[in-house]
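dumping the sequnces here before i forget
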Amino acid sequence: MELQAVLMAAGGGSRMMDLTYNTPKPLLPVGNKPLIWYPLNLLERVGFEEVIVITTKEVQKMISTDPKVKLDVKMKLDLVCIQEDADMGTADALRHIQQKVKTDVLVVSCDLITDAALHEVVDLFRAHNATLSMLMSKAHEFTETVPGQKGKKKTGEQRDFVGVDGTGKRLLFMANEADLDEGVVIRKSIMRKHPRMHIKTGLVDAHLYCLKKSVVDFLADNKSISSIRGELVPYLVRKQFSKSTNSPKVIDETHQNLKKNDSNISSRDEELLHLTQERSCWNDHRGDMSDAYHGGRLRCYVHIMDEGICYRVNTLAAYIEANRLAPKLFDEPAVHPSAVVSERCLIGADSIIGASCQISDKTSIKRSTIGVSTTVREKVKVTNSIIMHGVTIEEGCNIQGSVICSNAVIGRGADIKYCLVGSAQRIEPDGEHTTASPHLMSKACSA
Amino acid sequence: MSSRGGKQKKGNVTSEQEEEEQPLQAVLVADSFNRRFFPISKDQPRALLPLGNVAMIDYTLEFLTSTGVQETFVFCCWMSNKIKDHLLKSKWCRPTSPNVVHIITSDLYRSLGDVLRDVDAKNLVRNDFILVYGDVVSNIDVSQALQEHRHRRKVDKNISVMTMVFKESSPGHKSRCEEDDVIVAMDSKSKRFSMGTDEFEIRHDLLDCHISICSPQVAELFTDNFDYQTRNDFVRGILVNEEILGNQIHLYVTQDGYGARVSNLQMYDSVSSDMVRRWVYPLTPEANFTDQQGQGCTHSRHNVYRGAEVSLGHGSQMEENVLIGRDTSIGANCHISNSVIGNNCTIGDNVVLDRAHMWNNVHISSNVEIHQSVVCDGAVVKEAVRLNKQCVLAYNVVIGPNLSLPEGTVVSMHHPEEEEEDDDDEFLSDDQEVGHSKDKTRQKAFNPAEVGPEGKGYIWKASMNDTEDEELAQCLWGLVLNPDPESDSESEASEESQDRTFQLEVLGTLQRGLEENIVCDNLVLEINSLKYAYNITLKEVMQILTRVVLEYPFQQQGTQLTTLQYTGSLLPLLKTWSPVFKNYIKRAQDHLDCLSAVEELFLEQDTHQTAMVKVLMKMYQLEILEEEAILKWFSTGATNDKSRQLRKNQGLQKFIQWLKEAEDESSEEGE
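..and the predicted 3d for all of it:
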């Protein structure tokens, strides 16, 4: 076993509370599949047979009981529960399962939807014997109007500056705008080693990391690091160029530990690798004749996707976008065989109808997702919307650009535009709701 | 002269393309406006110094002509007559020259800015022009860059004002000038200097060739901004005001061309050896592109070039990369490598030359050894002299016999004090009368210990007490930045020592402040400038400041102080410096950081823990610290056993109790 997969599925989805109030984030339906299915499927496609899933009790319970969130995977899932209220970061979670980690790990976040070729990331990890390799993608502009938001989304998010070398693979620099006092400061020693540095902004971190086992052990020794993205990755990136004070410590100490425990399961022999590196005339850079990697032992790499789908479903806008694109990721019939769809209705090719749905006459469904066991009555028009499970939509409704959460009932003739309807809400008949009012509804659901 | 024919043809091709357009113009600045080549440039302007036995300005003119320039304005200032004479005799002023050279002289030019302002005033340029210095050696074909420049100007009207030409060369490359260690931020797609866009590139592998393609606006902009002196001023001005004025600067990167400016002797050495090694092809020594009689030489294996009438003694070896000018005679059993020897030189027997640059009419006696040094016209080196690395013998100097010059010795017939007297001249220009102080020079005797018993000349020393800039100006060979292994990479240790030096500096500042009664505002200013000098974050500044102040009594009176004595001397200090503290402690987090610094110190000085309450009390009274912060620190700050222990201190508990009550009262009052 070369890599162990770890899936982080304990996040609360704090940036889309409206949706995650009733359904935990890993189980939010995207294209009628729970969100967590996508990373699991990604791992399964590349041949993982086992995955450690770090999640909460609540999710575990729902996975085992609720038929609607049935996970359609053949892999062996090793569910590890952590306490929800412990406020654990991703690095804390990794530390939590240190005992289970026997080899290098591949850490994936549960909100990742991508068609990325995983081997690109792993190949970087292998080829350079890297400490860390990660996946990034060009950020996508969300084009759809987001329910409950008037006008353009504020660009309140702070930019990340990511510096890569001339080949675009080696990760040299990482900083968030929030941490910068006065402009970007880059050490000259880095510039001397890597004279060409591309600084990129507008990248999305897919939160997919290959980490050396020694890093996990390092985490166990350094309890102050709680988040992989926020602390560990910037730390590793920085440490690449530090004098041999700390970097070998990470590796060496664990190396010794391994020897001591005599539990060196991984077949790789660091010393042998170093020997090959010394004897070979291969060099990773041009311009000078110093050792490959300038003798550094810590190396971080990044694969930046140019095209393809890569979303992190952590905001409402991303959720809507993901729903629009998700069907492209799997080839299943758009209309589930068990759904009852009247012949006299119009269903666009880009819509999905879930299992045991009932769609009545003269309805029109375009660019929408209809969840499991949802009933849509006559003369309903649904465009650009996401209808979750068990929703009832009465006659003559017009729903546009909205998200209707599970078990909601939309009264006859209601006109809903760009709204978010909370879980199990009842919308009065003949009401007219546009962007102006959705907050009432989302508040109602969180009340 | 096949190469020359080829070039002319090329020139014609470009001119055909530009038939409708006006001829391409160039501005050549034949003055460096600095004294980097002093004392050599006291006798000869830099542009006329020989490089591979050809004056540097000839390389520049050849480069311009071969890229298709048809009209060149040469601006001279220092020793303009010599430059003028040289040019009038050269092929550039023959009627057949494809490049018409106009010589413009004035004693008033003090900088590149003045030259360009004059260009604007005289209305010399009508279109895009090339701006170069008279000491640029290059074979880059600029026409590609020129096309890109013109295209950009056509596409978005006159936004791009300048295209600078860069050559790729990694850090550590020997033709990379250590002083000119540029780091460029560019937009890789549009090749523009910028940092604003989503994606940009930072490049440390570029070498500034000091060749720029300018729009006519450049001259106007220099007129508008009379404070622009150098091209760097201009570039900075444009980039800073990019958003306001909308002007942009682009760059052109060449991979295979050669281009470098001879800005100091280090560069002179590198460029000269590159030239002999044929990197600047077709500008090679045997090409005789200046088309002068008798300049021709033959090229043989291992890059050995010999001029006409060269005689070589028995057993002498010319190992590799050697250029010997005409009528030079070399004695027996000499060993010459990587060197350039000028015309009419005589060299004795058993001479070893390595990386030596000897100009014309130099006499070297027997048993001389020269390593990486420059020997100017008419210099005489007597028997058994050894020149170590980076020595310079200026014009007509006599050295020896039996002497070894230490590394970096500069000998000139001009007395260094001449130079110092002229230092009043604010502008570092080369244009003062040399003859003035000649009488005085003669009065001073040569020191035989320095230049040998028969020697003539004065030793020039780089004066160390000057400011850094001037020292730089004095150092002929340029900065040699030794890649310091410590500073080479970011190490925790060095960062810590950074902190440590900063701490000492802060201590010094405060001490002086106390002795000289300096106003706290000025102290803050000084600490702020230290902060930038040592690259310390605000948080660290505050922690270090706190530490320094609290340790101050120990520092002054030794560590054997009793607690009472300690508080007695500390509390007045706190009062004096409270404005300094207040300047740094503003946000809530600052308060906590300050408190943790206090805590850390008293954890170390555990015998004085009782003093801590008094310190906190005083800081509270002086309104340096807020009670909320203190309470918060007390309740949450404990992270280990020691600090928990500290919090159990009775005095401290009482203080906290008192604070809490005070808070209650004040809040009650508030209601």
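Chain A is about 25% helix and 25% strand.
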